[in-house]
């Protein structure tokens, strides 16, 4: 893979994961600050919801692009790549989901922490425990990996659809994004085979198969216009979010269009900035999967605990929103380095040899 493309994917992936951490640091749920739409709410809303909205499709796009990169489209290569994804996706999925399930299961027996959980896991039937461990995981960030595993299994069909239906297949998948139902299946309150992920993954696959250039070279006014239009979209979403139900067609349209513009803006602005101030690849970026896998549950319950004691102090909550994101990221990196040093084989299993 070309070095500039490799660096772009690596660097954007890292900062995308950091923005996912920021999203999960949101600390205003069910507070009056959120209900009354105070200034602090809008600041956190921009970072935790609007800015982070674009990074999930970006992850799927990159995943689809990488799967078909240097792919000769033979049956042998499909088998090899799918087998490789078993090591990089399936094994880490079950290890992390099982690990966090056991941690939460144990923590619920600690009296001073048990009241932060609505329903104790040990009181649930075994089928529900298994469901929360591996299908609708307590380690909730891994819904993305669950979806990605489905898409990898579907890659031969995705390739055939691109081969015979060409760009029309992308148009069809894009149309599905504007349906009220966001996925093909809805089982026990879980959306499976989500249209947004499938569309984004397929766009990445299409880009790779057709050998399209993912490094942009627009004139400065294009970048400026995309930023302005994205900002207008975010502003409109403030109003739409309060005026319409989430499943209303206007809400869906505004959310999707803003997301597309945001994706385009971030993806191309990287190239604009990189031409002026070249991004350098840092060892820190290599820990991005561990950060993604380790931060979610711990950050969520840390947030619940400090919100209980701080209350409606908006300035402190806003400060902690940003600080906790950075601290969670640094803590994950520290844990990753410790594991790498002390038990490298365990680290390799947990990260799929990344």
UniProtKB/TrEMBL annotation:
Residue intervals passing through the bilayer: 12-29, 41-68, 89-110, 167-185, 191-209, 221-240, 252-273, 285-303, 315-339
Acyltransferase domain sequence ranges: 16-334
Primary location recorded for the protein, binned into one broad class: membrane
Keywords, in A-Z order: Acyltransferase, Cell membrane, Membrane, Transferase, Transmembrane, Transmembrane helix
Superkingdom of this protein's organism: Bacteria
Topological type in the membrane: Multi-pass membrane protein
PANTHER family documented for this protein: O-ACETYLTRANSFERASE WECH
Family of this protein: Belongs to the acyltransferase 3 family.
Name of protein: Acyltransferase
Originating species: Aquimarina algiphila
